[in-house]
Amino acid sequence: MERIPILKIGPALLVTIQVDMHDQLALTLEEDLTNRIVATGAKGVLIDISGLEIVDSFIGRMLANIASVSRMLDAETVVVGMRPAVAITLVELGLSLPGVRTALNAERGMALISARLAALARDDAADEDDEDAAPGA
Amino acid sequence: MERIPILKIGPALLVTIQVDMHDQLALTLEEDLTNRIVATGAKGVLIDISGLEIVDSFIGRMLANIASVSRMLDAETVVVGMRPAVAITLVELGLSLPGVRTALNAERGMALISARLAALARDDAADEDDEDAAPGA
Questions:
Q1: ipTM metric
Q2: In what residue span(s) does the STAS domain sit (chains A, B) (predicted)?
Q3: Looking at residue A71, which CATH number applies to its domain?
Protein backbone atom coordinates (compact mmCIF):
# COMPACT_ATOMS: atom_id res chain seq x y z
CA MET A 1 0.00 0.00 0.00
CA GLU A 2 1.95 3.01 -1.17
CA ARG A 3 -0.92 5.53 -1.23
CA ILE A 4 -4.53 5.84 -0.12
CA PRO A 5 -7.05 6.32 -2.96
CA ILE A 6 -8.83 9.68 -3.11
CA LEU A 7 -12.24 9.65 -4.82
CA LYS A 8 -14.05 12.66 -6.25
CA ILE A 9 -17.77 12.42 -5.50
CA GLY A 10 -19.84 15.45 -6.42
CA PRO A 11 -18.32 18.56 -4.82
CA ALA A 12 -16.18 16.59 -2.37
CA LEU A 13 -13.12 14.39 -2.17
CA LEU A 14 -13.57 11.17 -0.23
CA VAL A 15 -10.89 9.22 1.58
CA THR A 16 -11.55 5.98 3.43
CA ILE A 17 -8.84 5.15 5.93
CA GLN A 18 -8.57 1.42 6.38
CA VAL A 19 -4.93 0.70 6.99
CA ASP A 20 -2.45 1.54 9.71
CA MET A 21 -1.07 4.96 8.93
CA HIS A 22 2.69 5.25 9.18
CA ASP A 23 4.58 8.50 8.72
CA GLN A 24 5.23 8.24 5.00
CA LEU A 25 1.68 7.17 4.17
CA ALA A 26 0.25 10.10 6.16
CA LEU A 27 2.58 12.58 4.43
CA THR A 28 1.71 11.15 1.01
CA LEU A 29 -2.01 11.41 1.81
CA GLU A 30 -1.70 15.04 2.90
CA GLU A 31 0.24 15.91 -0.25
CA ASP A 32 -2.09 13.98 -2.58
CA LEU A 33 -5.16 15.58 -1.00
CA THR A 34 -3.72 19.07 -1.34
CA ASN A 35 -2.94 18.48 -5.01
CA ARG A 36 -6.37 17.01 -5.70
CA ILE A 37 -8.18 19.92 -4.01
CA VAL A 38 -6.33 22.34 -6.27
CA ALA A 39 -6.76 20.18 -9.40
CA THR A 40 -10.48 19.56 -8.92
CA GLY A 41 -11.60 22.70 -7.08
CA ALA A 42 -13.30 20.48 -4.52
CA LYS A 43 -15.13 22.36 -1.75
CA GLY A 44 -15.02 19.59 0.81
CA VAL A 45 -12.96 16.67 2.05
CA LEU A 46 -14.70 13.68 3.63
CA ILE A 47 -12.47 11.40 5.67
CA ASP A 48 -14.10 8.15 6.71
CA ILE A 49 -12.52 6.52 9.74
CA SER A 50 -15.18 3.88 10.38
CA GLY A 51 -12.56 1.25 9.65
CA LEU A 52 -10.29 2.44 12.46
CA GLU A 53 -10.59 0.87 15.89
CA ILE A 54 -7.87 3.06 17.34
CA VAL A 55 -7.10 6.72 16.65
CA ASP A 56 -3.92 7.80 18.39
CA SER A 57 -2.34 11.23 18.63
CA PHE A 58 -0.49 10.65 15.34
CA ILE A 59 -3.73 10.12 13.38
CA GLY A 60 -5.39 12.94 15.33
CA ARG A 61 -2.61 15.32 14.30
CA MET A 62 -2.83 14.13 10.69
CA LEU A 63 -6.58 14.84 10.61
CA ALA A 64 -6.05 18.30 12.11
CA ASN A 65 -3.27 19.02 9.57
CA ILE A 66 -5.42 17.97 6.64
CA ALA A 67 -8.26 20.17 7.92
CA SER A 68 -5.94 23.20 8.28
CA VAL A 69 -4.40 22.86 4.84
CA SER A 70 -7.80 22.21 3.22
CA ARG A 71 -9.27 25.30 4.85
CA MET A 72 -6.52 27.42 3.32
CA LEU A 73 -7.57 26.03 -0.06
CA ASP A 74 -11.24 26.82 0.67
CA ALA A 75 -12.32 23.23 1.31
CA GLU A 76 -14.01 22.06 4.49
CA THR A 77 -12.91 18.82 6.10
CA VAL A 78 -15.49 16.53 7.66
CA VAL A 79 -14.42 13.41 9.54
CA VAL A 80 -17.14 10.77 9.38
CA GLY A 81 -17.86 7.34 10.79
CA MET A 82 -16.02 7.70 14.06
CA ARG A 83 -16.67 4.74 16.37
CA PRO A 84 -17.97 5.52 19.85
CA ALA A 85 -14.88 4.00 21.49
CA VAL A 86 -12.64 6.19 19.33
CA ALA A 87 -14.51 9.34 20.37
CA ILE A 88 -14.07 8.40 24.03
CA THR A 89 -10.36 7.70 23.59
CA LEU A 90 -9.77 10.98 21.74
CA VAL A 91 -11.37 12.99 24.53
CA GLU A 92 -9.41 11.04 27.14
CA LEU A 93 -6.22 11.83 25.23
CA GLY A 94 -7.20 15.50 25.27
CA LEU A 95 -7.49 15.51 21.46
CA SER A 96 -10.73 17.23 20.55
CA LEU A 97 -9.69 17.73 16.91
CA PRO A 98 -9.95 21.54 16.73
CA GLY A 99 -10.99 22.82 13.32
CA VAL A 100 -12.23 19.44 12.22
CA ARG A 101 -15.95 19.00 11.67
CA THR A 102 -17.48 15.61 12.23
CA ALA A 103 -20.60 13.84 11.02
CA LEU A 104 -22.12 10.51 11.93
CA ASN A 105 -21.69 8.95 8.50
CA ALA A 106 -20.64 9.73 4.94
CA GLU A 107 -24.15 10.62 3.87
CA ARG A 108 -24.53 13.28 6.58
CA GLY A 109 -21.01 14.54 5.92
CA MET A 110 -21.87 14.98 2.25
CA ALA A 111 -25.04 16.85 3.27
CA LEU A 112 -22.92 19.21 5.42
CA ILE A 113 -20.66 20.00 2.46
CA SER A 114 -23.62 20.49 0.12
CA ALA A 115 -25.26 22.82 2.66
CA ARG A 116 -22.06 24.88 2.86
CA LEU A 117 -21.93 25.07 -0.96
CA ALA A 118 -25.54 26.24 -1.07
CA ALA A 119 -24.83 28.89 1.57
CA LEU A 120 -21.81 30.11 -0.43
CA ALA A 121 -23.93 30.30 -3.59
CA ARG A 122 -26.59 32.32 -1.71
CA ASP A 123 -23.93 34.72 -0.43
CA ASP A 124 -22.58 35.15 -3.95
CA ALA A 125 -26.06 35.85 -5.28
CA ALA A 126 -26.68 38.37 -2.47
CA ASP A 127 -23.38 40.12 -3.24
CA GLU A 128 -24.34 40.40 -6.88
CA ASP A 129 -27.73 41.82 -5.95
CA ASP A 130 -25.97 44.41 -3.79
CA GLU A 131 -23.71 45.34 -6.69
CA ASP A 132 -26.68 45.56 -9.06
CA ALA A 133 -28.49 47.77 -6.59
CA ALA A 134 -25.51 50.03 -5.83
CA PRO A 135 -25.53 52.19 -9.00
CA GLY A 136 -29.23 52.97 -8.52
CA ALA A 137 -28.82 53.97 -4.86
CA MET B 1 -8.49 -5.22 9.32
CA GLU B 2 -11.51 -7.38 10.02
CA ARG B 3 -13.92 -5.75 7.58
CA ILE B 4 -13.93 -3.22 4.77
CA PRO B 5 -16.03 -0.08 5.40
CA ILE B 6 -19.13 0.38 3.23
CA LEU B 7 -20.29 3.97 2.78
CA LYS B 8 -23.73 5.09 1.69
CA ILE B 9 -23.47 8.04 -0.69
CA GLY B 10 -26.72 9.17 -2.28
CA PRO B 11 -28.40 6.20 -3.97
CA ALA B 12 -25.28 4.04 -3.91
CA LEU B 13 -23.03 2.08 -1.61
CA LEU B 14 -19.33 2.75 -1.99
CA VAL B 15 -16.49 0.39 -1.18
CA THR B 16 -12.84 1.29 -1.61
CA ILE B 17 -10.61 -1.76 -1.77
CA GLN B 18 -7.16 -0.92 -0.44
CA VAL B 19 -5.92 -4.04 1.25
CA ASP B 20 -5.01 -7.52 0.15
CA MET B 21 -8.18 -9.53 0.05
CA HIS B 22 -8.01 -12.91 1.70
CA ASP B 23 -10.84 -15.45 1.69
CA GLN B 24 -12.47 -14.40 4.95
CA LEU B 25 -12.30 -10.69 4.17
CA ALA B 26 -13.90 -11.26 0.75
CA LEU B 27 -16.69 -13.36 2.24
CA THR B 28 -17.32 -10.76 4.96
CA LEU B 29 -17.46 -8.00 2.34
CA GLU B 30 -19.96 -9.92 0.20
CA GLU B 31 -22.16 -10.58 3.23
CA ASP B 32 -21.93 -7.02 4.57
CA LEU B 33 -22.73 -5.57 1.15
CA THR B 34 -25.75 -7.83 0.74
CA ASN B 35 -27.08 -6.81 4.15
CA ARG B 36 -26.49 -3.12 3.49
CA ILE B 37 -28.26 -3.24 0.10
CA VAL B 38 -31.32 -4.70 1.79
CA ALA B 39 -31.14 -2.35 4.80
CA THR B 40 -30.69 0.84 2.76
CA GLY B 41 -32.51 0.00 -0.47
CA ALA B 42 -29.43 1.15 -2.38
CA LYS B 43 -29.77 0.96 -6.16
CA GLY B 44 -26.09 0.76 -6.93
CA VAL B 45 -22.78 -0.51 -5.62
CA LEU B 46 -19.56 1.32 -6.51
CA ILE B 47 -16.37 -0.65 -5.96
CA ASP B 48 -13.23 1.41 -6.28
CA ILE B 49 -10.14 -0.63 -7.09
CA SER B 50 -7.78 2.26 -7.88
CA GLY B 51 -5.67 1.19 -4.90
CA LEU B 52 -5.05 -2.27 -6.34
CA GLU B 53 -1.98 -2.87 -8.45
CA ILE B 54 -2.86 -6.50 -9.03
CA VAL B 55 -6.24 -8.10 -9.60
CA ASP B 56 -6.00 -11.88 -9.71
CA SER B 57 -8.65 -14.46 -10.46
CA PHE B 58 -9.69 -14.49 -6.78
CA ILE B 59 -10.52 -10.79 -6.76
CA GLY B 60 -12.07 -11.09 -10.23
CA ARG B 61 -14.38 -13.83 -8.98
CA MET B 62 -15.27 -11.80 -5.88
CA LEU B 63 -16.24 -8.81 -8.05
CA ALA B 64 -18.37 -11.04 -10.31
CA ASN B 65 -20.04 -12.61 -7.24
CA ILE B 66 -20.86 -9.24 -5.72
CA ALA B 67 -22.30 -8.08 -9.05
CA SER B 68 -24.50 -11.19 -9.35
CA VAL B 69 -25.85 -11.01 -5.81
CA SER B 70 -26.43 -7.24 -6.07
CA ARG B 71 -28.34 -7.69 -9.33
CA MET B 72 -30.71 -10.11 -7.60
CA LEU B 73 -31.36 -7.38 -5.04
CA ASP B 74 -31.98 -4.81 -7.81
CA ALA B 75 -28.70 -2.95 -7.38
CA GLU B 76 -26.21 -2.41 -10.19
CA THR B 77 -22.51 -2.93 -9.53
CA VAL B 78 -19.98 -0.59 -11.11
CA VAL B 79 -16.26 -1.22 -10.71
CA VAL B 80 -14.34 2.04 -10.92
CA GLY B 81 -10.75 3.23 -10.96
CA MET B 82 -9.20 0.21 -12.64
CA ARG B 83 -5.55 0.82 -13.51
CA PRO B 84 -4.52 0.25 -17.15
CA ALA B 85 -2.11 -2.53 -16.17
CA VAL B 86 -4.89 -4.29 -14.26
CA ALA B 87 -7.20 -4.18 -17.29
CA ILE B 88 -4.47 -5.71 -19.44
CA THR B 89 -3.78 -8.46 -16.91
CA LEU B 90 -7.47 -9.30 -16.53
CA VAL B 91 -7.88 -9.75 -20.29
CA GLU B 92 -4.70 -11.83 -20.46
CA LEU B 93 -6.08 -14.03 -17.68
CA GLY B 94 -9.29 -14.45 -19.69
CA LEU B 95 -11.27 -12.64 -16.97
CA SER B 96 -13.50 -10.10 -18.66
CA LEU B 97 -15.72 -9.66 -15.56
CA PRO B 98 -19.07 -10.65 -17.12
CA GLY B 99 -22.02 -8.82 -15.59
CA VAL B 100 -19.80 -6.18 -14.04
CA ARG B 101 -20.06 -2.64 -15.36
CA THR B 102 -17.01 -0.44 -15.20
CA ALA B 103 -16.41 3.30 -15.18
CA LEU B 104 -13.22 5.33 -15.31
CA ASN B 105 -13.64 6.88 -11.87
CA ALA B 106 -16.05 7.14 -8.96
CA GLU B 107 -17.67 10.28 -10.33
CA ARG B 108 -18.56 8.62 -13.65
CA GLY B 109 -19.67 5.47 -11.84
CA MET B 110 -22.01 7.53 -9.69
CA ALA B 111 -23.35 9.20 -12.86
CA LEU B 112 -24.06 5.73 -14.34
CA ILE B 113 -26.07 4.75 -11.27
CA SER B 114 -27.96 8.05 -11.22
CA ALA B 115 -28.77 7.64 -14.93
CA ARG B 116 -30.14 4.15 -14.26
CA LEU B 117 -32.26 5.51 -11.40
CA ALA B 118 -33.64 8.26 -13.64
CA ALA B 119 -34.46 5.68 -16.35
CA LEU B 120 -36.27 3.51 -13.78
CA ALA B 121 -38.25 6.53 -12.58
CA ARG B 122 -39.23 7.35 -16.18
CA ASP B 123 -40.36 3.75 -16.75
CA ASP B 124 -42.44 3.88 -13.57
CA ALA B 125 -44.04 7.13 -14.67
CA ALA B 126 -44.78 5.68 -18.14
CA ASP B 127 -46.36 2.58 -16.57
CA GLU B 128 -48.59 4.78 -14.43
CA ASP B 129 -49.62 6.77 -17.48
CA ASP B 130 -50.54 3.51 -19.25
CA GLU B 131 -52.64 2.46 -16.27
CA ASP B 132 -54.33 5.82 -16.15
CA ALA B 133 -55.07 5.60 -19.87
CA ALA B 134 -56.28 1.99 -19.81
CA PRO B 135 -59.80 2.50 -18.41
CA GLY B 136 -60.54 5.12 -21.03
CA ALA B 137 -59.35 2.96 -23.97
A1: 0.83
A2: 1-113
A3: 3.30.750.24
